[in-house]
Design goal:
8-stranded antiparallel sheet, alpha+beta, 3-stranded antiparallel sheet, 7 helices, 259 residues
């Protein structure tokens, strides 16, 4: 299944460790694509998977794991040591079918345009709010979903979870797993103004003005099929078992787990 994990240096063998499984359709080729640093005409049309958006003046060199038919990537790293992986998530708010940016486009755009994890989160949020997310993400079958991301570099990591153009961010403290389920609860480190206003208008907030993002918006019927919450808990437990000694081989072992 699709799982993304990260450990910061304070809880590993001494360096940030990142890994992801990608559960694309069978027989859908996914290859490593090395994209060089490049200069562009700022504002020129950039064709992503479905829509064109304005290009920036310069983009970073990136190594992408990219399904062959789409512009974006399931995961990747850039020349500055930024890594991003995405997860399909399902919410009580239906995913948009109208074509826009897809989650894999946002992964690549964050890598191409940012030199730090924090900057990549800001890039993804800005593009999400401006262009939205939507369109068929399946190769043969039709598949529509929202997206969550782990974004990391050598010093810090973030979980960014989205529903439509809404978003919340959690600063990763040390170890973090993410799967096909919304996971940020009532204490995000940042929240989109539109979502905060909507939550207040709907009466979702408590006396302190907080509401449980995952608890309120997670599609529990879809989660019963994908078992995203269960897999996230399993991944987190396995990360904790290796606290203080997690390395690349340990991350590979966790990603191979079928427990």
């Amino acid at each position: 299944m699709c799982d993304t994990l990260v450990g910061l240096a304070t809880a590993t063998a001494g360096a940030t460790v990142f890994g992801k499984n990608s559960d694309r359709e069978r027989n859908e080729a996914q290859f490593l694509d090395l994209v060089p640093r490049a200069r562009h005409v700022a504002g020129a049309p950039l064709q992503t998977t479905y829509i064109a958006i304005p290009q920036v003046a310069e983009t970073n060199a990136c190594l992408l794991s990219r399904p062959f038919w789409m512009w974006g990537a399931e995961m990747g790293a850039n020349e500055h040591g930024v890594v991003i992986g995405n997860e399909a998530v399902h919410a009580k708010v239906p995913a948009q079918r109208r074509r826009a940016l897809i989650g894999m486009d946002l992964v690549r755009l964050g890598l191409e345009r940012a030199a730090s994890a924090k900057a990549a989160v800001d890039v993804i949020i800005e593009l999400l709010e401006r262009h939205g997310q939507g369109g068929d993400c399946g190769h043969l079958g039709r598949f529509y979903y929202h997206n969550s991301f782990i974004v990391a570099d050598a010093g810090e990591a973030y979980v960014l979870e989205t529903v439509g153009r809404w978003w919340v961010v959690e600063n990763v403290r040390d170890l973090r797993a993410l799967s096909n389920a919304l996971s940020i609860g009532d204490r995000p480190d940042a929240i989109s103004p539109d979502l905060a206003a909507h939550a207040r208008a709907e009466g979702w907030t408590d006396a302190a003005g907080r509401f449980d993002f995952a608890g309120r918006l997670l599609d529990e019927d879809r989660d019963a099929v994908s078992r995203g919450r269960m897999r996230c808990a399993r991944g987190q437990a396995l990360l904790e078992r290796r606290r203080g000694r997690l390395d690349a081989l340990g991350m590979m072992a966790i990603l191979r787990d079928h427990g």
